[in-house]
Amino acid sequence: KSLNLPGFLRLAMAEPLPDRKYYRRAWVTFAHNTDIKEACSVLMSSKVEKYDHELNVVINRELSKRVRFVPSFTRSLYAVQQDVKWLEILITELDKAAGLWVTEIKEEDEEEGEDDSEERQNEMYENPMIEELRCFTEDSLKTPTLDHELDQGETDEDEIHIINDKKLKILDRLIVYLRVVHMVDYYNGTEFPNEDEMPNKIGVFHIRGPVETSNSKNSLQDVHDWNKQLGGKIQGVIDDMRGVTIPHDEAVEIGLKTEEETVEEFVKMNTEEQGPGKFHCPLSGKKFKGPEFVRKHIFNKHAEKVENVKKDAIFWNNYVQEPKRPMEPLFPPTQQSNNGQSYSTSTPNTSYTAPPRPSYPGFPPPYGFPAPFPQAPAPKGRKVISYNDLDAPDEYDVLGV
Length: 401
What we know:
Layout: E1 8-13, E2 26-30, H1 36-44, E3 47-48, E4 53-54, E5 67-70, H2 77-98, E6 102-109, E7 118-125, H3 128-140, H4 146-151, H5 169-181, E8 184-185, E9 190-191, E10 205-208, H6 220-242, H7 248-254, H8 259-269, E11 272-275, E12 278-280, E13 287-288, H9 291-301, H10 303-321, E14 334-336, E15 342-344
Parallel strand pairs: 5-10
Antiparallel strand pairs: 1-2, 3-4, 6-7, 8-9, 11-12, 12-13, 14-15
């Protein structure tokens, strides 16, 4: 908007990528009658304020493969059992958060000795598709679970019970409802919270693929691995929705702080002792006779800075407790080269200091480098023979000094 581009409609920004130097993508949508080349030229010549960052502008292309397939064994009985469980939890919580299919029931209770009535509001959730799903579960999924079958040692392909697609129409309706209404791609375990601001209103959509006709066989272990991976993604979406944070003990290990500790560190940092009975406050430059007077001065005259310290502590604690906080990757990402070998794409860490190289007795370090190996001890009873070139200059006299 600050550039006053004609035809501008909306702007959408993705989360920064820590493993790519916090590279961040953004999508700008213009009206159909806009000169898009002129708009790109203006954006290319502009920079981000305060950071002096240039913009790499390209014209967005339509998705070539919007609908993508997942393995065909997702229509197996044990995969559908997990899908029913997660879909009911996801849709119920997302509907209630958005106020969909929720009706308020008001009840009036009269208490003795009071003329005023108290209103209690209760919510009733009635999504007809969830009721259909429960009926489908009771009628079609009354079988042992996958964990029970694996405990019994049944891992043959013949034990994978494939459910007819006609029976899975209820499941398909809920998957489409979750994707269109709540912008959650179920089979990919991904939520698109700002998709309504994107150029493509509905982007990638994963569905069950066709039944495989090849000779490849799938076992119950394949279904188990799929359920475990997908369940972890869906649990992450639910945790984000519920605002779940990491455990307190883990947060303390990372560096969780209290406001009191942060304020005490701030006061201690700004209390300088210049001599016996002389204390200095660097914030104002005043001198005091004791640290308690400096502390009182900071709270009275620099209360705004103390409040800023408390806000910083709250901000830091929120960052520490966030499960998906941006941070440097523990292991650099690798890519495959043309010859099939993997290589790292991370930039070298300039702050790393190499450990000192070891020195070995008996070998002087010419040119600043130690000897590559230690000197072997001379054998007893035999004189060590020197193999130095007598005509060569001394190794310390190479430059003629």
